[in-house]
Specification:
This protein is 6% helix and 46% strand. With 567 residues, it is mainly β. The longest helix is centred in the N-terminal third of the chain and has 20 residues.
């Protein structure tokens, strides 16, 4: 009996060990954009580099392939196989590691809605992971290696574009990317660029303007890697000017939206809230910043015969230090200029945070921040958690009202209603200081809100057509913000666009190529889950001073929105 138990225990241990060492795939994405499965443009293009994520995929230390790129022979025991209708294709390897593998989708793999990707480690296969193989799916590499924020763009001399190495209007630049299409060359030989057959029209949009395309195709000397050479359009300036590629004309596929820095002259860009000198100073070390904000959000939702309004007045603050390495990779520090739009997409239940946040160090500015205005005093409390030392927040007023239930719904977020707090006038925000930041006083003039004049006329949005939005009023210097969010549940993916204009413009047209990057909205029990919002914010934030920070800014916002159906 004891021998049988020992044999059984040994067998179970071997089975557990074998199971632990079996490769497993959790995701397969474009190696540049990381577009989540189910989003527009999320397929894997013929001839493009793709990334496989999972466990037990290869060696503990990453190993890169040389030339010729290994296929059936594998890389350190790892190989990637694509199967379509019973036919197997070996993918040329780029690199292999325990949790991540990169390879090239062979150009001779047929177009299909479902190919199966399998990783074999010492001939032990993973379970197949389904992907769509498409003709093209442009993806732009980014500095944060997550498909968001500043793109991997260089000038003609291959100098990376950053805040202090910006491009000028009329200057040539190079976008580094993949997914433009298959090639006739041998993809396992590094150095054979080859022709890209069926290369459809490639368009580059920068800050909402069309850029001249000088070249679009394989990077000479590198298989799977593409580049687009372009000229910066005139009349552009900013540190986060949106850049996107569309392939195959009006009905084509758009890449991930990234940003580049453009300076009217010189090499340092200027952004809303930052000067050239401040970016130059940060380039030699780090930047310590404090940001305060007061704002109102009003959202109207019609569902099941009820009309619900969520109206919240909030105050917030954040104090952080970040070095230049984090600054140039962040998608949150700089903002697009007026006239431009950008898009962020995500897979899963929530939008991802900026990866550069992990490089930010929170600063202690005290336990609370006081707010005083036309409707009396309030307090912003320091938040809990690892980063709570640098963040402050408070619900200042408002709540949820439903037709027939004016008192709101206790227990729901925002459901315990308070009187409105924010109204036009002057507000003072004060802090007594903490371990890192000294005492400060900031002043903010909160203006009358603008009016979204064609709100009632928009109940659905056709993602293949331009969207016109109009407004009136607001402070003449206001920056107008138009933003929309659409999510779907099969699979769970989402996307948000944000466009900027000026109050004086009175209207803005959101281009169809922006809307086409969003998934269609889910409709739950007849109620669309998409959201469209229009509002205003400070065009130039006010400044405040405090010891321990290099820059202090204070701004306002007032946004109004409603649920719509993105079709």
């Amino acid at each position: 009996m004891k021998t049988k138990l020992l044999l059984l225990s040994s067998a179970l241990a071997c089975a557990t060990l074998a199971q632990a060492q079996t490769p497993a795939i959790t995701n397969v994405t474009n190696a540049a954009s990381y577009a989540a499965k189910g989003l527009p443009g999320s397929g894997i293009a013929q001839g493009s580099i793709f990334t496989v994520f999972g466990s037990n995929l290869g060696p503990a230390t990453l190993v890169q392939a040389g030339a010729p790129r290994p296929t059936a022979a594998g890389l350190s025991g790892t190989r990637v196989r694509i199967t379509v209708s019973g036919t197997n294709y070996d993918a040329p390897m780029i690199y292999s590691s325990r949790t991540q593998v990169a390879a090239i989708m062979p150009s001779n793999v047929p177009l299909t809605a479902q190919a199966n990707v399998v990783v074999l480690v010492n001939d032990t296969p993973s379970s197949p992971f389904p992907v769509a193989v498409v003709r093209y799916a442009p993806g732009i590499y980014t500095l944060n290696s997550a498909g968001t924020g500043p793109g991997v763009v260089t000038d003609a001399n291959y100098v990376p574009v950053t805040f202090t190495a910006a491009l000028n209007p009329g200057q040539a630049g190079i976008i580094w990317m993949n997914g433009l299409g298959g090639t006739t060359a041998s993809e396992d030989i590094n150095g054979a660029a080859g022709a890209i057959p069926n290369l459809a029209q490639v368009e580059v949009f920068i800050g909402g303007k069309t850029a001249q395309v000088l070249y679009a195709g394989r990077t000479p000397g590198f298989t799977g890697l593409d580049q687009v050479n372009f000229t910066v359009p005139s009349d552009l300036e900013g540190c986060a000017v949106p850049l996107v590629i569309r392939q195959n004309g009006g009905n084509g596929v758009v890449s991930n939206f990234v940003s580049i820095s453009v300076a009217r002259s010189g090499r340092t860009c200027r952004d809303r809230g930052f000067t050239e000198a401040e970016f130059q100073s940060a380039a030699s070390g780090s930047m310590r910043m404090g940001a305060l904000s007061l704002g109102r959000t009003t959202i109207k939702t019609s569902a099941g015969g009820f009309d619900m309004q969520t109206r919240l007045d909030i105050g917030s603050g954040s104090f952080f230090r970040f070095d230049y390495n984090a600054l140039i990779r962040s998608s949150s520090v700089a903002e697009p200029p007026a006239g431009a739009c950008t898009v962020s997409t995500f897979g899963g239940e929530t939008e991802p945070t900026d990866p550069a946040f992990a490089l930010f160090t929170p600063l202690d500015a005290g336990n609370t921040i006081g707010v005083n205005g036309p409707n009396g005093p309030k307090v912003l409390d320091r938040q809990s958690g690892p980063e709570g030392r640098g963040t402050y927040y408070a619900k200042l007023g408002g709540g949820i009202t439903i037709s027939g239930l004016p008192g709101g719904i206790p227990g729901l977020p925002g459901g315990n209603n308070l009187p409105d707090y924010l109204s036009a006038g002057t507000y003072t925000l004060t802090g007594t200081g903490g371990a890192d930041v000294g005492a400060f006083t900031a002043t903010l003039n909160y203006p009358q809100p603008l009016t979204w004049t064609n709100e009632a006329a928009i109940t659905s949005v056709n993602r293949t057509q331009n969207l016109n939005v109009t407004w009136s009023g607001g402070a003449p210097s206001d920056l107008v913000v138009i933003t929309g969010t659409s999510t779907n549940t099969n699979p769970t993916v989402g996307g948000s666009f944000i466009c900027y204009s000026t109050a004086a413009a009175g209207g803005f047209t959101v281009p169809s190529w922006v809307l086409s990057a969003l998934p269609a909205s889910a409709v739950i029990e007849g109620t669309p889950t998409g959201m469209l919002m229009v509002g205003s914010t400070s065009s130039e934030p006010s400044r405040f001073n405090a010891s321990g920070i290099d820059i202090g800014v204070v701004s306002y916002f007032n946004y109004g929105g409603k649920n719509v159906n993105f079709q």
